Amino acid sequence: MKTVRVVGWLSTLFAGVVGCGGGTVPAPEEVSSAALAAGDNARTLVMPWLADPEVYKENDDLFFLTGTGNGVVLPLYESNDLTAFRFKRDYNPSAADPTYDYCFLWAPDLNKSNGAYQLHFSAHRVPNGAACPPAGQEVTTFVATAPDLNLNFGAPQPLNANTTWPRTSTATGCLPQGCNRNIRIDSATYNDVADRWFFYVWFDRGNNISSFNMAAPGTVYNHAGPAVFATPAHEEGINEAPEVFKRNGIYYLLFSGGWYNSQYAMYYVMADSIPQLTRARAVRRLSLPLRNSAGKLVQSHGHNVIVERRGEYFNVFHVGAFDTAGNLTSRSTYMQRVGFKPDGAMTSLNQVSVRWNKLNGYSYSLDVVLRDGSVIGPCSSVALLGQSNKTVFDGVCRSAGDRVVTKGDIAAFRIFYAINGAWGAFVEKAYDGISDDVSLELPGGFTPFVDLEWNELQTPAQYSIDVQRRDTGAWIGPCIGVASVNKSLAWTYQGRCDTPGINVAPSNIQAFRICSAVNGDWAHARCGAAAYDGRGLHSRIVIP
């Protein structure tokens, strides 16, 4: 993770966590993750001590991995199956450049353009033999080129030198054309049919993300960051590490937010075109930092790349590991399969919404059953759950010594229920290791709420909720009006239609409907409905 002022903490990170010196850390002949068998959703280690990963796909049988190593060289690995990665070579820009030395190398982007291979990376640059980094210089981005898959990259070059376009700049402060013309860190390229896009991070009141079409670099598109958009406090003024991919006609912009030793996590937005990929759209959380019972960090996740192989998608990201006092001890690259919901939204890295129906007067606790047959129980005890009927499992069993459990290791969830302390009864629900939602049905219980979710339409769209009564077949619309729902993409229905002031129990509902309108034009609203069985705790509606 990078921030506006990089020198102080990067010195600590490179020296104390990754290690400095002339060689790559590590430089193994081969590192293997678990086999990517169909249905295997386990999180697998790709490369220890490698951060800010980047994967370039040449074809389904040839991939290249790079990332932040020791700050002196950039390591390059290759794989034929996304499972076994073998060391290929290091790139040392100081050795390749007869004029300059480079330090604090990180966050590379590997891509192909016009038949040649390009390696963009963030760094400081000084004349040969000079102290690096120098006082009064800011980090920026350079690019090196290789003619073929030997990936023997030449001397780095500045981007868009001697232009008014977004460009390489070692000077502090903003360029005359604006701060968003400073290509500082975290470059990412995306080839979209005939267009080629370049994403990058610039500094102003925090970290911000912009892009330009390389065929028209004079037009800059601002996507995220506190200098342009309102950002929530938990992102701590940091939007960085952009990554773009496309699936089924939908574009995705992923980014990381928060300080590396605080709220660091992954987020994304979805849209129908690259210019629409901004925070004006819904910002969806992809990961949540793990904290122990004392509130200290256990893991953080970020700076990711999405890789597709034979129709399946994988999230490659780095995991920050922390000691019991919450101090960062290492960063390593992992991979985890990505699932997609009906509207194209991705399943989260480490969150599962677990819901169960209600028995009056009862209390609950949660166990997890692992794929090896062992049970962690309680994972969340009655002291944490009490009489609530849902919880978000985030990867830490805080009632079991803060044990970390990834989604892919879970085979089932169990809810124990008791009244007057008489424990013993439980229900169990199998889990696929990737979904975001699990519901359990307790015998004799009733439905206290229904969590509704729906897809996003146009950027300025607003929404309302209708329900169809089971007893009469009549629709109540709106049940929850636009004044309450506004632009939200989720709502917890608790048995009352607030707009008309009518109670309608979930058991008396046979369908939910979500309607969407732009600029208050409800006469031309677009609506989508989903049947409801009167018992479920969760319903997802797709607006066509």
From TrEMBL:
One Pfam family this sequence matches: Glyco_hydro_43
One GO MF term attached to the UniProt entry: hydrolase activity
Domain of life of the source: Bacteria
Keywords: Glycosidase, Hydrolase
Keyword RNA-binding: no
Transmembrane regions: none
InterPro entries, per database record: Glyco_hydro_43, Glyco_hydro_beta-prop_sf, Glycosyl_Hydrlase_43
Record-linked SUPFAM superfamilies: Arabinanase/levansucrase/invertase (SSF75005)
Family of the protein in this entry: Belongs to the glycosyl hydrolase 43 family.
PANTHER family on file: BETA-XYLOSIDASE, ENDO-ARABINASE
Protein name: Glycoside hydrolase
